[in-house]
């Protein structure tokens, strides 16, 4: 039986992927997040080799599950637990044929995309940006009301975009299963404490 979907998702970008202290920060996050934490190896501008090496580094934590964004070849090569599909990625059904045990998520930005992802067979939705975020300043935040509408579709929803430790509780109360973050985790002054607090807010 497949383990439950993790509630806290620590997503990398190119800048995080190339940091020299990535192993140390990942170790702190793993201690704080425990089995509720998943690492997402992501970086649209990474070379294939860089993406693969990032995934290998993030797979070195026995209690933490690894998700790969877009690069399903790397997910297969590293024995990942799940994949996150974005715009232009392989169809959910095609990903399912590669590994039926994967958690397969689809990134969506509004209700119409969420409905389409559900019809396509996605296991969960990564929904955002819920709040304003420096990662995608060009995108207007959805807000909590729009998040609640997507939650009503019935799939597990992981909220992303401007989600900090202080905002986890309200996102959870809006019905989200979990949250995802880049800066709030990888750039936290105390990564272990940040991950631990987020997990506590999600599971209480």
Structure described in brief:
By secondary structure, this protein is an alpha/beta fold.
Account of the 3D structure:
This protein has helices at residues 14-17, 22-33, 48-58, 72-78, 92-98, 111-120, 143-151, 168-173, 183-186, 191-203, and strands at residues 8-11, 37-41, 65-69, 82-85, 103-108, 124-127, 157-159, 178-181. The chain is an alpha/beta fold and 204 residues long. The chain has a domain at 8-104 and 159-203: TIM Barrel, CATH 3.20.20. It has an eight-stranded parallel β-barrel with strand order 1-2-3-4-5-6-7-8, surrounded by seven helices. The longest helix has 13 residues, at 191-203.
Secondary-structure blueprint of this entry?
Blueprint: E1 8-11, H1 14-17, H2 22-33, E2 37-41, H3 48-58, E3 65-69, H4 72-78, E4 82-85, H5 92-98, E5 103-108, H6 111-120, E6 124-127, H7 143-151, E7 157-159, H8 168-173, E8 178-181, H9 183-186, H10 191-203
Parallel strand pairs: 1-2, 1-8, 2-3, 3-4, 4-5, 5-6, 6-7, 7-8
């Amino acid at each position: 039986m497949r383990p439950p979907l993790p509630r806290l998702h620590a997503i990398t970008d190119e800048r995080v992927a190339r940091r020299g202290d990535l192993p140390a920060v990942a170790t702190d996050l793993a201690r704080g997040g425990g089995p509720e934490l998943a690492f997402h190896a992501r970086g649209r501008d990474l070379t294939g080799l860089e993406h693969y090496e990032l995934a290998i580094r993030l797979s070195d934590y026995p209690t933490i599950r690894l998700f790969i964004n877009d690069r399903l070849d790397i997910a297969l090569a590293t024995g990942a637990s799940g994949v996150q599909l974005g715009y232009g990625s392989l169809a959910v059904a095609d990903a399912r044929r590669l590994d039926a045990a994967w958690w397969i998520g689809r990134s969506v930005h509004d209700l119409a995309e969420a409905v389409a992802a559900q019809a396509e067979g996605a296991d969960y939705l990564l929904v955002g940006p819920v709040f304003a975020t420096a990662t995608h300043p060009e995108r207007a935040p959805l807000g909590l009301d729009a998040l609640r509408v997507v939650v009503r579709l019935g799939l597990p929803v992981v909220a992303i975009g401007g989600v900090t430790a202080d905002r986890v509780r309200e996102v959870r109360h809006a019905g989200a299963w979990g949250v995802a973050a880049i800066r709030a985790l990888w750039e936290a002054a105390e990564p272990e404490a940040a991950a631990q607090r987020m997990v506590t807010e999600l599971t209480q």
